[in-house]
Structures are given as C-alpha cells and as structure tokens.
Amino acid sequence: MAKTVRFGVIGCGMMGREFASAAARWMHLDADLPRPEIIAACNRSAGKLEWFKKNVPTLRLATCDYRELLEREDVDAVYVAVPHALHEEIYIACLRAGKHLMGEKPFGMDKEQNDAIAAECAKHPELFVRCTSQFPYFPAAQIMIDWIRLGKFGRLIEVRSGLLHSSDLDLNKPINWKRMVKENGEYGCMGDLGIHAEHIPFRAGWRPKTVCAKLSKLVAKRPDGKGGVAECDTWDNATLLCDAEDADGNTFPMTFEMKRLFPGSTNDWYLEVYGMDMAAKISTGDAGAFHFTASWGKERAWSRISVGYKTMIPAITSPILEFGYPDSILQMWAAFMAEFDGRKVPFGCFSVEETRLSHALQTAALRSHAEARVVFICTGRGPKL
Question: Where, residue-wise, is CATH 3.40.50.720 in the chain?
C-alpha cells in the first residue's frame, strides 16, 4: 500500500487549487505511488482559504501566516505558489523547517535570489526539491522526449520552443502581480513563462551559449480593479535567439518565445525540433497530435498522428480518449511523488540545477536587450534524458 505524504499549500490561488484537485483525483492513477494529502493551507488574504475549507476534507489548518504552517510537525512537504518576490524568503524558510518542497517557477525573482535558494538546498541534501513544469507530461511531449533520447533527429538543424497566450490583449483586464516588477521581477514574461519553454531542451542537454534578446513592453497601463489605473512595468513579450550546443559539442540555433500578447494563442505551449534525419513538432494548440516528417526519397512530408491518452504514469482513462491540462498537472505531481519515493521516472520534474540555468539565460537576456548585443552565457550541465 502506497504511503501518504502530508502536504501544506502556501498560496491558494489557481495553481494551489489545481494541486488540491490533482490530490483529490489520485485514484485516477493506475500506479502504486505515495499519495499527497493536503492537511494545511496558507494564503496571505483569508478569502481564498474558504475554497480549501469547503473542498479539502483532510484540511486541519487554514492560516494567513506561513510560519504557522511550517511549525507543524505533521506537515512533511510543502507546495509553494506565491508571487516571485516571495520565493526566496518562503522557499528558504521551508527548507530550514525540514520540509520537502515543490516550488513554482522561476524559483526566485532574480539570479541572486535563485543562488540563495540553491545554496540553501545544498545544505539540505536529505530534502527533495523540485520546480513545477507540467507541459512535458502531455502524451505528444512524451513521444518527443523519447525521440530525442533515441537520437531520431540526427544532427540538429534548429530548435524552437515557447509559450504563447493572448489574454493580455484584453486591455480592460485588471492588472495583477505578474505585471508589476516589484512582485514579478525584472524578467517579466520570461520569469513566468520561461521554464515551460526550457524544460525539455535543457533536459535534452541542449545548452544556450549565447543569447540575443528582443523584449517588448506593449501595454503601459491597466485598470487597477478599484476604479483607477496602474502602471504595467514588466516585459510583455520576449524572443531569445540563442546559439546552443548539444552533448556532442555541435552548435545550432535555438529560439525561445515567452509571450503574453500573441493573437490567436489562448495558452499555446509548443516545441519544434528540426534535424538532418527528421523533424517533429508538438503544440497544445493541437494537443492530441504529434507531427513528424516522413522521407519520400529526397523529399520530406509532414505526417500527423493522433496520440490519445498515453501517459508516462499509467492512468485509468482509455488510451483512445483525450488528454487535457488537468491531466498534465496530475502527471507532473505523479512524477514528483514517484521521484520523492526514490523511483526512476522517464522524465522528472524541473530540477534546482535547471532553475540555475534558466536564471543564467534570463539574466543574460536582460543584459542583451539593454545593451543591444549578443551576450555569452556560462552554463552547467544538470540532469539528462
């Protein structure tokens, strides 16, 4: 019988509720994994705690003070989903309290904060620490990961990866913390969206060596939700043009897009890999499909297959049915719990080492844009496929 891991949730917004929903649906997994049980919830305003009180029957504590949650001996692990400006303070407090940690991206508001979190992680090797990134758990992404691992693409010609959405095209949408540097950080859209684009390329061992960044601020003001207006001072869109290197030392261009203002894309995560032997592309805009090239002699033709519900962690849904966003959240948490239990999984959650690479890239991107030049990046290797 799988053991239960008692969780506290710090930050009861959308992602905190998504975790609670995934934990409630643990029976959906057809695997003997440790089960997360949410026993404590914390939010800095009391209103969002009401949802947890109403919908999480295992809840024993609802508080506005995260320190009260961390003091509980019956909390084994913590999921933290708070604005970026709070990451350093709360993540380090979790580690010092002896709690295993799943933290939201970007794992620190800037590189200095990320370095401090990583240094604290190094002091606690007994604790399991990961960062969220759910899109690689779509079935089509798992096929892409397998093909990369098997070397099906041959020598790489080009890689493109990104997350595009268009909700900010609504200029009447009230401002939130992601549009304010004081809570989101200087990275802007890169801090919020970057790790989603970077997860598979980084795990594949494709390391950006240089970056030329094009950043845009397109909306200067938004309604403040109180009858007035507020300044939007973060970057809305980012395109990072990188020279990258594979594990064999070959170089190729790799492009990352992180955009909040992209007409026609509700929330489109994509990855395209072009190689000398073949190419493939996936997108949540066509979530059930895997596109790849088939050889017709000297020519290449695009083919499309319907993937179905073929997941990394087995589930009860028939493979002929459709997979969606809540399923990717459940698969991500299943991967976390499996690794937490010491099991090997085909594709694990974003690691602390990979967050350091993400910060190195995004810090260099800020400098590239400010100085209008290509900037070199010093990077490590991290985990591998």
Answer: 4-131
Q: Which residues 6+ apart lie within 8 Å of 64 measured at CB?
A: 42, 43, 44, 45, 46, 49
* Encoded tokens for 265: 């894309």
By the 10 Å C-beta count (0-12 exposed, 13-18 middle, 19+ buried), 116 is classed as middle
Reference 167, options 264, 269, 286, 270; nearest CA is 264
Burial (Cβ within 10 Å: 0-12, 13-18, ≥19) of residue 175: middle
**CATH code linked to domain 4-131:** 3.40.50.720
Q: What is the pLDDT of residues 230-270, one digit of tens each?
A: 999 999 999 999 999 998 999 999 999 999 999 999 999 99
pLDDT digits (tens, 9 = 90+) for 294-351: 888 788 999 999 999 999 999 999 999 999 999 999 999 999 999 999 999 999 999 9
